[in-house]
Design brief:
The complex is a heterodimer of chains A (about 100) and B (about 375). Chain A is mainly beta. Chain A is built from no helices and 9 strands. By secondary structure, chain B is α/β, with parallel strands linked by helices. Chain B folds into 2 domains: about 120 residues, Rossmann fold (3-Layer(aba) Sandwich); about 230 residues, Rossmann fold (3-Layer(aba) Sandwich), CATH 3.40.50. Helix content of chain B is about 40%, strand content about 15%.
Chain lengths: ~100, ~375
């Protein structure tokens, strides 16, 4: 894994940073025959995620090819995708 | 494939030869520690249990104490009580006799106070130690091993490096006829469907769903969002956003084998292969449950870094990233961060973990053992009376 960031499954709409990435970095990521260049609008800490494509509010966020939560607001391509814009569907006692 | 272990009189295989000083009630904790400090090659635990338990909670605490003290890594145990508690040394010793485990008992009220109990306890511990010193390692089959898998202080790399590498080691052990336990049910939420699909039969599949559904219901009954506890603040800082994301990385520790059964906390597996044990995600009580279930060794992956060990079982630590490894090198046995930055692969680190398990099983000390880490916690599930 010498790349800067990794897509884990073709169904994924988020990318995991494999090092600290800086605002303005142009990141090439791909999986199988799909490759895309993303210019980051902000810093992404090591191990954190950014959007592979625009994700609409309420849309499922997918990593490992599985749903890891829902977007609580629009997440633009390249934007940091974390607790400020993704919520869990599990263990939501606050919703009961 | 073979390693060097201790064959106990009941046929079980130990990989350590500990004499354990074990209080059956918190009130005997200090005396147990005093005895252990007088007989330095013994190990000792303290805990908050022993009285005020009812029903399933009492059963679980007793099962944990019996399982832990009869783990084959324990050559002999001195049970220390007070005299008026619910869970007594004699009660536990009765169960240990059935399991073929060597045990001595003592109680503070009967001995006549702290000093007398400590002196009498010291004499008994020395006797157990002398007996254990004659036991020798012999060549035994790898299929005798029960591996407990654990992850703690996870980060987003745990699910990409350390956990899948441990999954390779788990698969290798299962292929050799051994047993692997995965636990931490809250850290399966969002990944239940993947585990359920790997169940050996419909019954096991049903148990997986029942357990994960009940765990989620008990969490939801608290009326709050799980986030903050799962993922924890450190997990979130490490890049894990939701419990689903954490779980999808966590379950990779168990590899890809068929799931043979679902066990209650601290229950012994009745089948070889990969099994699930009910436990919290809280690392130390999860480890304790698996060791009480007979695991002789734990492999513990970590993103943020953790020193945790066990009084009686070696805990092999695997870091998910090189920064943590470099920062906490004295605590970490294997760095899976080299999958990312050192030319290793998930497969090569997985094989390295498997080889390390065999070395450690034959006597090599883990870093947690060298440093003297002996964390212990019993998972209680009932009201405390």
């Amino acid at each position: 894994m010498s790349e800067k960031a990794i897509i884990l499954d073709k169904k994924d709409n988020v990318v995991t940073a494999l090092r600290r990435l800086e605002e303005g970095d142009s990141i090439q990521v791909g999986i199988e025959d799909y490759t895309v260049n993303i210019v980051l609008p902000q810093n992404i800490p090591f191990g954190h995620k950014f959007a592979l494509k625009d994700i609409q509010q309420g849309e499922a966020v997918t990593k490992y090819g599985e749903v890891i939560g829902l977007a609580t607001k629009q997440i633009w391509r390249g934007e940091h995708a974390h607790i400020h814009n993704i919520e869990s569907l599990k263990g939501r006692g606050d919703r009961q | 494939m073979k390693f060097l272990g201790y064959r106990r009189s009941n046929g079980n295989i130990g990989i350590r030869n500990h004499i354990l000083i074990f209080p059956t009630i918190i009130c005997a904790s200090t005396v147990a520690q005093m005895i252990s400090s007088k007989v330095p090659s013994t190990v000792c635990v303290t805990h908050h249990c022993g009285c005020g338990h009812i029903g399933e909670d009492a059963e679980q605490v007793i099962r944990t104490m019996v399982g832990f003290t009869s783990n084959p890594n324990v050559a002999g145990v001195l049970l220390v009580g007070l005299g008026c508690e619910l869970i007594t040394p004699d009660g536990i010793a009765g169960e240990l006799a059935k399991a073929g485990q060597r045990a001595e008992t003592i109680s503070i009220q009967e001995a006549g106070g702290t000093t007398k109990c400590m002196e009498e306890g010291k004499r008994l511990a020395e006797k157990l130690l002398a007996e254990a010193s004659t036991m020798k390692r012999e060549s035994v089959d790898v299929s005798e091993l029960i591996l407990g898998t654990e992850c703690g202080g996870s980060d987003a790399l745990s699910g990409l490096t350390a956990n899948p590498a441990l999954g390779i080691a788990s698969d290798l052990l299962v292929a050799e006829g051994g047993t692997v336990i995965i636990s931490e049910i809250p850290e399966m939420l969002g990944a239940e469907h993947i585990l359920a699909k790997r169940a050996a039969d419909g019954e096991v599949e049903k148990h997986i769903w029942e357990l994960t559904t009940a765990t989620e219901a008990s969490i939801n009954a608290m009326g709050v969002d799980i986030r903050g506890a799962q993922p924890s603040p450190g997990n979130i800082e490490g890049g894990l956003t939701t419990i689903e994301e954490k779980s999808l990385g966590c379950i990779r520790k168990g590899g890809s084998s068929t799931i043979m059964e679902v066990l209650k906390y601290a229950k012994k597996p009745t089948k070889k292969g990969l099994v699930i044990m009910d436990s919290p995600g809280f690392d130390v009580s999860s480890d304790t449950g698996m060791i009480a279930g007979g695991a002789q060794v734990i492999v513990f992956t970590t993103g943020r870094g953790t020193p945790v060990g066990s009084p009686i079982a070696p805990v092999i630590k695997v870091s998910s990233n090189t920064t943590t490894y470099n920062k906490m090198r004295e605590n970490i046995d294997i760095n899976a961060g080299t999958i990312l930055d050192g030319g290793d692969t998930v497969q090569s680190i997985g094989e390295q973990i498997f080889n390390e398990i065999l070395e450690v099983a034959s006597g090599k000390l883990t870093k947690a053992e060298v440093l003297g880490h002996r964390e212990f916690a019993i998972n209680t599930i009932g009201p405390r009376l």
